[in-house]
Amino acid sequence: MALKIKWNDDRVRGATTAILLIGRDRLHRGATDNLIQAALAEYRADPQGYKENKAVWADAKELGPLTNPTHVAYYKNLQAAIEGLYKKITQAKRQFNSLLELDNWLVASLKNPH
Known about the structure:
mainly alpha, two-stranded antiparallel sheet, 67% helix
C-alpha cells in the first residue's frame, strides 16, 4: 500500500512555505525563470540549507527584501494563490502518492498566480 500525503500533512504546508520563502529570495536576486519549480527543486535538494536560511529570513507573510513593484505584486499574488490552494485541497481532501506528485501538482497549480 502506497504512503499517502493528505491535505493536512505538514509536508504540504512545508512545501508551500518553501515556495514562498525561496521564491521571495529568488525574486530578490532576480532569478524569476521557472520560479515555483526552481524553488521546489532547491528545497528538495538541500533541506538542511533551507532550514538554516529559514531561520534568518523574514516570515513568509512579509515582503522581506522585495522592493521591485513587479516582484512585490507577483509575491502577493503567489501568497493568495497558495491560500486558495489550501482551501481547494481541504475541501476536496486531496491526497498525493509521493512528494514528486505533490511537487508536480504545486507547480501546475501555481503556474500563473495572477
